What we know:
Elements: H1 12-17, H2 28-48, H3 54-66, H4 71-81, H5 86-99, H6 113-149, E1 154-159, E2 162-168, H7 169-194, H8 213-224, H9 238-264, E3 272-273, H10 291-300, H11 303-312, H12 324-352, E4 354-355, H13 357-365, H14 373-384, H15 386-403, H16 407-419, H17 421-434, H18 437-457
Antiparallel strand pairs: 1-2, 3-4
Helix pairs in contact: 2-3, 2-6, 2-8, 3-5, 6-7, 6-12, 7-9, 7-18, 9-10, 9-11, 9-12, 10-12, 11-12, 14-15, 14-16, 14-17, 15-16, 16-17
Amino acid sequence: MNTGKPAMAVSLIDQCLDPAGDTELFSDRQWLEALLRFEAGLAAAQAAAGLVPAAAAAAIAQACAAIELDRGDFIERARRTGAFGIGLVDPIRGFLAGQAPDALPYLHWGTTTQDAVDTAHAMLTKTALAALLDELQGLVAALRALAHAHAATPMMARSLLQPAQVTSFGFKCAQSAAALQRSTSQLRALAPHALCVQLGGAVGNRAAIGRRAAQVELVLAAELGLWASGQSWHTQRDAWMRLAMEASVCAGSLSKLARDWSLMSQFEVGELAEAPRGRTSSAMPHKRNSVHCMQAIALTQPVPGLAASLLGAMTQAHERAIGEWQAELSSWAPLWRRVHGAAAALRLAAEGVQVDAARMQSHIDALCEVIFSEACTDALAPLAGREAAQQAIEQLAPQALAQRRPLSALLRHWVETTRGPEPARAAAQALAAATDPRRAVHASATCCAELLRTLDAAEPPSSTLEPHHV
């Protein structure tokens, strides 16, 4: 088939922000090819069901392979008529009129514009989903490797952006890997319900094709590499939307990872750094920006709005929408491109990230043990009572930071002055255990190991999205 050389509908800025921007997703060329594949596949499926003469189906297939669709003409016809399919069907009809007029009555027979466009859209979305799953698989693998390597690497956990307790960098990586793996599993599970042939006819009841509609749908689905839902989904978009919403949830997980890593890469934090790539600022040669994290955040920023637009487009009147479906078409591709680009950016970041474990430990040390306040409370509660211990820590923690003295030393002195020498000796032993960094990171290391075992035990993802047609 010849579709000319239509340009990709992606802006210069979008291309600059997307490290996977050269991956062809929802391009004009792909759209036109998918629409032509639908028409050729439909005729072949109807011929197999005995509804269309084999010679007519062959002529339609030949026309779809030979025809040159003009992008400008396609757009002009769709703008004038409001029907995308007219820009497709009219040129094929013109070819058949000159080459195989007997096939004309069977072109696009029993279907409608939305059948062609929805089926083509499912084909393009399948390509986009496969590309996204590839990037997610690479990112999850990189995160799992980091989790294995840093399961017991202590770092400061932050709550409301303030020092909280000790966790491990590996545990954070394992948590992100698990979230993205859950999205991967959900996307794969939803695909057979969403990436389906659309074959409803004028009002979704398949009246023209009749009792052989199911057979035609199965053959067409096998030809196009899609699934067969057994029904029209013209204005019932729930399965289709669930797939997009899971992609949106995945974007949220990607954005959270990018945000955490970008904060950890600030100079004054310095716990992470992306792989060196030379100068990253036009005005300040010293800067080494977290480019991939920036790209992921920028790409995912509009996703909630796109998801909301898609959900809003579900209110499609009666049997065919008047504007909502068309609005859905314009929001669908940007969502998938952005999620795919964000996954690609973070895969690159994870594969080259530099972890400064010493810097992570220095931040813990700089807190003079106040980061162990909860453990210290538990250690002192049997000796002084929980409420008294909490009050003492609340009063002494600022002193520890101001005087640069370990909190445990101030607490031992407090116990000795308020409870006596014997309780102070017991407190010293309990506080030593409570402020041991290895003990503090143990819980996170254990959680990390459990998550990794779960991920390792999970059934390996299928390498294909191809339906199994009988």
